[in-house]
Every structure is written in C-alpha cells, then in structure tokens.
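Dear H.,

Thanks for agreeing to be a second pair of eyes. The structure we're designing against is below in token form, covering all 160 positions.
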C-alpha cells in the first residue's frame, strides 16, 4: 500500500513538474526570440550593414551560428565527462577529443571567413567578432542583474 501511494505521489510530482516546464517553455522561446532580435539589431548597427549586405550576410551568419552552436554543445559534452579516477589512457582520449573540437572550431572560422568576406569588408569582419563578444557581455551583465546577489532571483521588497 505504501509503495502504491509513494508511486502515485512520485507520478503526481513528475506530472506537475512536466506541466510547469511546458508552461515555462513558451516564455523561454519568446525570450530567446527577443534576444535574437536584439542581437540582429545590435550587430547590424555595429557593422553598419547596408540593406544589400544584410540580405546576403544574415543567411551566412545564421548558418555559421548554427554550426558554431553545435560545436559548443560538443565541447560541453566533452568537458562534462566524468573525470574522477580516470586511467591515463582515458585522460588522453578526453584531451584528444577536446583538441579535435577546437580544431573543428578553427576550421569553421576559416571556412566562414571566406564566406563572410564575400559579403562584408575585413574591417566589418573584425567588428563582427568584437560586437558578438560585446553583445554577450551585455547579455551576461543583464542576466546577473536580474538574478541579484549570489545568483538568486532578485525580488523587490514590498513597502508597508
């Protein structure tokens, strides 16, 4: 009987958690879309893209970003490998995997350097990488401000 009740409570807690996550998902998707729109506006402004350039630039940039995101995911997976009590052989495999991902990232940048330079100037390409870093800094700063001290969500105190 206790097992049945525990199982029911566990299923209930799981279903409540899933329902909550599903309700939060549209908000997360909206937030991601807003960030992407802000990034497009920021980069367009920082690069001073002309309309004709922008029409050719954004499809290349989006393709580059998608491939770069996949490599970042691959890098995180390698970094998150359980490293306690590794043999030397396993540690060397992990190191080789990290280096392989870094080599893929360099190859991606080389490939897209040529593609970008077919649309924007070398100065704009330098500015692109600089503006991306600056945008990410601003995004992280806003995120820290929203979380408040010690990484907790910031709450406004109610006045009595």
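And this is the sequence the design step returned. I haven't edited it by hand at all.
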């Amino acid at each position: 009987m206790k097992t049945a009740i525990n199982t029911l409570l566990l299923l209930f807690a799981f279903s409540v958690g899933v329902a909550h996550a599903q309700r939060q998902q549209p908000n997360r998707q909206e937030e991601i879309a807003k960030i992407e729109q802000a990034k497009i506006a920021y980069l367009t402004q920082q690069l001073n893209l002309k309309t004709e350039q922008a029409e050719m630039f954004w499809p290349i940039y989006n393709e580059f970003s998608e491939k770069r995101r996949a490599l970042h995911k691959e890098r995180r997976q390698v970094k998150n490998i359980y490293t306690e009590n590794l043999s030397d052989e396993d540690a060397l495999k992990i190191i080789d995997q990290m280096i392989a991902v870094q080599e893929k990232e360099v190859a991606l940048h080389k490939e897209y350097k040529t593609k970008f330079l077919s649309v924007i100037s070398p100065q704009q390409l330098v500015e692109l990488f600089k503006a991306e870093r600056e945008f990410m800094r601003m995004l992280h700063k806003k995120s820290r401000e929203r979380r408040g001290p010690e990484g907790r969500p910031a709450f406004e105190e109610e006045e009595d």
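Two observations from my side: The radius of gyration is 22 Å. Residues 2-142 form one domain.

Warmly,
E.
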